[in-house]
Each structure stands twice: as C-alpha cells, then as structure tokens.
Design a protein that fits this description.
Elements (H helix, E strand, L loop, with lengths): L1 H10 L7 H18 L6 E6 L3 H16 L3 E2 L8 E6 L4 H12 L2 H6 L4 E6 L5 H10 L3 E5 L7 H11 L3 E3 L20 E5 L1 E2 L10 H5 L3 E2 L2 H13 L4 E5 L16 H9 L6 E5 L8 H9 L6 E3 L7 H7 L5 H14 L4 E8 L6 H14 L3 E6 L16 H22 L7 E9 L6 E5 L5 E5 L8 E10 L2 E6 L5
Parallel strand pairs: 1-2, 1-3, 3-4, 4-5, 5-6, 7-10, 10-11, 12-13, 13-14, 17-19
Antiparallel strand pairs: 8-9, 15-16, 15-18, 16-17, 18-19
Helix pairs in contact: 2-7, 10-11, 13-14, 14-15
C-alpha cells in the first residue's frame, strides 16, 4: 500500500522544472510535519567546502531545505540533516571532507533518522563517490553538481523509503534556476551566469566534474538580478568558472562585457562584482565597461598560476608572461586605484628553478594586493597527473620563498589610501572589537571602524586612519548618520 502511494505521488509530480522541485518540497514538508509529532526537530546544517560556486550551491541547498520545513541549526551537533557541498580542485579539500564525515559517524548512529549527505564536485569523481558508497554506509544522500537542484526530490525518496539514495549524473545540459536560496547576508547575492568550463587546463579537474560550459540566457540573469534588487540586495556578484567566455554557446548575440554593462545599469545596484576572469580573454571592451561604471567593484582577480612561458604552455593557459604583464599594466593605467589579486601554483610538473624565478619576477613587477598560493595538487584524470612530479623538498622550499615574496609585495601596497574618506559596504559587527563594524571598500579591502549596528547592510563613508597588514582601521565620516 505504501509503495503504491509513493508511486502515485511520483506520477503526480509535474515534469517541468522547477515546478517539479517545488512539488517535492511540499511533499517533504508534509512528511516533516508528521515526523515532528514524534519529536523530530527538523534541524539542518549545510557545510561548504570549496569555491564561490560551491558556496552558491550551498545557498540553494539551504533554501530548498528551508522550503521543505527544516530550520537552520547552530552546528552539525544538533542537526537532523547535514549536507556537505564539496570541492575537488585540490587533494586537501577531499581530505577535509573525509575528516568531517568521519567525525559524524557516531552522531548518525545516535540521532534517530539523521541524514548525512554529500553533494557537489567531489561526488562527480567516480572513485570518490564509490569510496563513499562502500566505506561510509551512514552517508545517506549522494549527488553531484548536475542535480543540486533535485535535493527535494531525492530527500523525499530517502525519507519515504528510509533508504540511502545515490544519484550522480555524468553531465547535463539542463540549467534549473528560480529555486529558493538562503544567503549569509540579505543585502549581498551571487548570481550564476554560466556553469562548467571549456578551458581544460592540464592540472584542473573542473571541466571533468562540472562539465562543459553552459551560459544562462541574459534575460534570465537580468530578471534574477532585478528580483534581488527588489528584495533589498545592493551588491551582486556574477559567477562563472571563466566569466569572460560567457555567451559563446548562446544563440543570442551576447558577451560578458555587454552583460556586465546591462547589470551595472540596473536601478538600485550599489556594487557589482564578478568571479573569475581568465587572463587569456580579458578584453579591451571589458576594461572599458569597468572604467565606465563606478558601481563595478575596483577589484579584479586575475589568476597568474605561473610566470613561466614554458609552464604556462604545459598548463594550457594560453597566455604568456609578456601578455599577462601587459594586461595588468593596462588595467592599472585605465582604472586607477584598482586592486589586483591572483592565484599562483608552485611545483607544477617539470617546473625548474628558472621557471619559478619567472613567477617571482611577475609578482615583484605587478605587486598584487594579495595572492592565493598553492602547492600543485595531483588530480587523477587530468593530463598533468601522469607527468613527472617535482620532488617535495624542492616544492616546499619554493613555496616558502613564494610566500615571503607575496608578503613583501603586499606590504609595499599597504596604506596607500590612508587619510582618504571612502565608501564601505558594511557587512557585520566586528567579531574582535566591541562597538566596531566590518565592511569592504570597492577594491575589496577590509575595513574595521566604530559605528552603530544600524549601518549594517548599508554604504557608509569611512575615513581610513591606519593600515594593519591586510585591512584598514577607520572612523565614520562626520556626515554619516
């Protein structure tokens, strides 16, 4: 009888998305209400491991669970559902995930009806998903990047059948948006403009786990941005693995500079960001758009990865040391005060000391405001994984020298804006200083200043009075309410 009822409910679900998922949210909500009568608390925690794309997936998962009748928990210790949205770009991300689910084994056994789930990039790796299936039987939900939107449908089956559900799709051309979302800050939001990547850098697993690039229609993106602005959002971040290549797969005549300009012109948008740009196709038109619109953040993350032409060629990065330097100088000349940050990989297979010195030379020449530095992580399935690796002792020595160079360059950029009054988007109360607030300048640099909590979520004029490594201490301008 129960099986018949389940099949009937499945058959009644709308075939089109996202209506189908809203139907299953309602079905889960009914099950949750029944379970609550027996003491079920219906608490959830979504834990994010990974990049901005993974964090955006986490917001969607939180929104779906909230619509399903669940309530956010303060910690995983008191949660009936714990979901991890994962990253697999580097090995340490995988190790973090295994450590965290290992610590939840006893909680899963002790908390009746608890569901532990893993979603995202790591589950798109067949070996990792199979390892979870075999060695972690208490992980009851397993799904990948291509069906994050299906959480309610998968959860409904898991709850109804009290069973383990695993669904990892190898790829999908479907883009499902217009789903509920729960954000950390009500006044800031991220909007996906594309999914996947076509670049196939030889060290990177992303194209294999997130699939080929799929751009969203510009009208859908603009409609989502307008909706967010209507809800009180004042900062939007446009997300893509490489935003520069947005639109190349669309039938409409649309590229990223045009999209960025269209979003920047929306009424009520105070600040616009984007992540991430590949130096190979960062166009003149894009610089012009940023230059023209003052609400586009004066911060560009431009991943270098290596300063050696030899290494860049084997990485399949499709730019050179010279072209990167030319681009960075052009951006700085055209957009004064802009903050440039970057990514650097040390120890790529075959990297020589001369290659490494080329990287240091770029860092010393550009003086990035900050750099995310990584030791090369061998990812099974990528071309570079089978190449001869640089010995660990050499890599560790180079990494130490890289870090010293990055810190020195960052220090030389410190304090350039001391004495200026600049606009800060106030994000939250300072966790370390009572009575202080924390926010960011348009160039993404952090500012701490004394002020009333009523300023949170607003743009505030702040005079910068002191530089402390990677942030400023400031004073609210006298005309500030």
């Amino acid at each position: 009888m129960e099986d018949t009822r389940f099949k009937k409910l499945i058959a009644e679900a709308p075939p089109e998305e996202p209506a189908r998922q809203y139907y299953f949210m309602e079905q889960v909500r009914r099950l949750v209400e029944i379970k609550k009568k027996s003491g079920y608390e219906a608490l959830f925690k979504v834990e994010v491991i990974g990049c901005q794309m993974s964090a955006r997936d986490g917001e969607k998962l939180s929104g779906i669970l909230t619509n399903c009748g669940y309530t956010p928990a303060d910690s995983v210790d008191h949660s009936d559902i714990v979901l991890f949205t994962t990253c697999t770009v580097r090995e340490n991300a995988n190790e973090r995930l295994y450590g965290r689910i290992g610590r939840l084994k006893h909680q899963c056994a002790a908390r009746d009806g608890m569901i532990l789930g893993i979603a995202g990039c790591m589950m798109q790796e067949k070996d990792e998903a199979e390892l979870i299936r075999k060695k972690y039987p208490y992980v009851r939900l397993i799904f990948g990047t291509h069906n994050v939107y299906k959480l309610a449908e998968l959860l409904f089956e898991a709850l109804w059948k009290d069973a383990r559900i695993m669904e990892v799709l190898p790829d999908s051309s479907l883009i499902v948006e217009d789903l509920p979302s729960v954000r950390k800050y009500p006044f800031k939001a991220s909007v996906n403009i594309s999914y996947g990547c076509n670049n196939f850098c030889t060290y990177c697993i992303v194209p294999y786990v997130r699939g080929r690039e799929k751009s969203r229609n510009s009208s859908d993106i603009l409609r989502e941005c307008e909706k967010l602005l209507g809800e009180g959002v004042i900062e939007i971040c446009l997300l893509g693995q490489n935003v520069n290549s947005y639109g190349k797969d669309l039938a409409e005549d649309m590229d990223f500079p045009t999209l960025l300009s269209n979003v920047a012109e929306l009424q009520g948008l105070k600040r616009l960001r984007f992540m991430t740009s590949n130096p190979m196709d960062f166009s003149e038109e894009l610089i012009t758009v940023i230059e023209k619109h003052p609400n586009i953040e004066r911060h560009i993350h431009l991943p270098l990865q290596s300063g050696s032409d030899n290494v860049l060629r084997r990485m399949n990065r499709r730019y050179t040391k010279e072209s990167f330097l030319k681009l960075a100088h052009k951006i700085r000349e055209r957009i004064p005060g802009i903050s440039l940050t970057t990514d650097v990989i040390v120890g790529f297979p075959g990297e020589t000391e001369m290659d490494f010195q080329d990287t240091l030379d770029v860092l010393r020449t550009i003086h990035f405001d900050s750099a995310f530095t990584f030791i090369y992580s061998r990812r099974t399935g990528t071309p570079a994984a089978s190449w001869e690796q640089v010995p660990d002792d050499i890599v560790k020595d180079r990494f130490a020298r890289l870090m010293a160079t990055v810190k020195q360059c960052s220090r030389e950029n410190e304090g350039l804006d001391i004495g200026k009054t600049m606009e800060v988007l106030v994000e939250e109360a300072d966790k370390e200083r009572k009575g202080f607030l924390t926010g960011r300048l348009s160039n993404n640099i952090l500012v701490h200043f004394e002020g009333p909590s009523s300023l949170i979520g607003q743009m505030a004029n702040v005079r910068l009075v002191e530089s402390r490594d990677f942030y400023y201490l400031g004073v609210a301008a006298s005309d500030q309410a």
